[in-house]
């Protein structure tokens, strides 16, 4: 798998550098500090480095990704991303007080998925579940958008989200979704509990069967000029309120 971007590559070099088989860098007369750090860490870990010109560098990308890659000036080659088992995520959170797992219902935009992963790591989520079908997968765009945050949170890729929700409930989790018609706002709900937080898709929100599986619904208070937020923005707002409540003195 290709990993694009200085921040993403730096995070992997700092955490699991042996994942890289090689790193390709764009030749430049004045490399900036992060590129110098990448070179240093690659040398420190014995990772092959190849410096090439702009024309050669562009050949590593299809048309859709060229500008993104060339602007960053660095890419790395790693093994494909390894998803976690949901059972392992549950086991690893047994001793966590009020664990939080995100359930992403058909988030198809890799930039949204990457942004949600980054917020989840920054705001203390313990795991993420994505569906195997009709969903963005962890690829170079997601890794870049998350600034490498995928290295800090386990992600399970499940065939059936309803079965995953049932499994969470069997292990003491409460499932919380968002609904504009909910009487209770996000700020009125006590979220200090083991929580499976559902984030609906960018276009249609939660599917009906997922909505039926929720235990509670909350709404995000808004001015009323627009009736919805971008999926990754909604996730950030929800995650921050849960983080705030869990960290109140």
Characterize the structure shown:
- The chain has helices at residues 6-15, 33-44, 54-58, 66-72, 86-92, 110-122, 140-145, 161-170, 208-212, 231-246; strands spanning 2-4, 20-26, 49-52, 74-78, 100-104, 127-131, 155-158, 174-178, 195-199, 216-218.
- By secondary structure, it is of the alpha/beta class.
- The chain has two domains: 2-78, Ribosomal protein L30/S12 (60s Ribosomal Protein L30, Chain: A, 2-Layer Sandwich), CATH 3.30.1330.30; 86-246, Alpha/beta knot.
- It has a six-stranded parallel sheet with strand order 7-6-5-9-8-10, sandwiched between helices. The protein has a four-stranded mixed sheet with strand order 1-4-2-3, sandwiched between helices.
- Helix 6 packs parallel to helix 10.
- The model has no long low-confidence stretch (mean pLDDT 89).
Average pLDDT, all residues:
89
Q: How many beta-strand segments?
A: 10
- Helicity, as a percent range: 25-40%
Relevant CATH superfamily of the largest domain: SPOUT methyltransferase, trefoil knot domain
Q: Beta fraction of the residues?
A: 15-25%
CATH architecture of the largest domain: 3-Layer(aba) Sandwich
Looking at CATH, which topology of the largest domain would you report?
Alpha/beta knot
Class based on secondary structure composition and strand pairing: alpha/beta
Main β-sheet description: 6 strands, parallel
Number of helices: 10
Biggest sheet: strands side by side, in what order?
A: 7-6-5-9-8-10
């Amino acid at each position: 798998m290709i990993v694009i971007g200085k921040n993403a590559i730096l995070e992997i070099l700092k955490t699991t550098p042996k994942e890289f088989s090689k790193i390709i860098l764009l030749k430049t007369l004045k490399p900036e500090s992060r590129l110098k750090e990448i070179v240093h860490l690659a040398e420190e870990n014995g990772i092959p480095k190849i410096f090439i010109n702009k024309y050669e560098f562009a050949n590593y990308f299809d048309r859709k990704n060229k500008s993104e890659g060339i602007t960053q000036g660095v890419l790395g080659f790693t093994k494909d991303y390894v998803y976690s088992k949901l059972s392992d995520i549950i086991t690893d959170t047994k001793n966590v007080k009020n664990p939080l797992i995100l359930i992403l219902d058909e988030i198809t935009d890799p930039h949204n998925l990457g942004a949600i992963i980054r917020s989840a790591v920054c705001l203390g989520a313990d795991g993420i579940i994505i569906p195997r079908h009709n969903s963005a997968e962890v690829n170079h765009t997601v890794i870049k958008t998350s600034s490498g945050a995928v290295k800090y949170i386990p992600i399970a890729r499940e065939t059936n989200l309803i079965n995953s929700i049932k499994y969470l409930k069997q292990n003491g989790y409460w499932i919380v979704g968002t609904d504009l018609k909910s009487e209770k706002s996000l700020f009125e709900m006590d979220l200090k509990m083991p929580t499976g937080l559902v984030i609906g898709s960018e276009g249609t929100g939660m599917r009906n069967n997922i909505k039926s599986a929720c235990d509670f619904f909350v709404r995000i208070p808004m001015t009323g000029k627009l009736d919805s937020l971008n999926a990754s923005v909604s996730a950030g707002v929800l995650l921050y309120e849960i983080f705030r409540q869990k960290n109140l003195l």
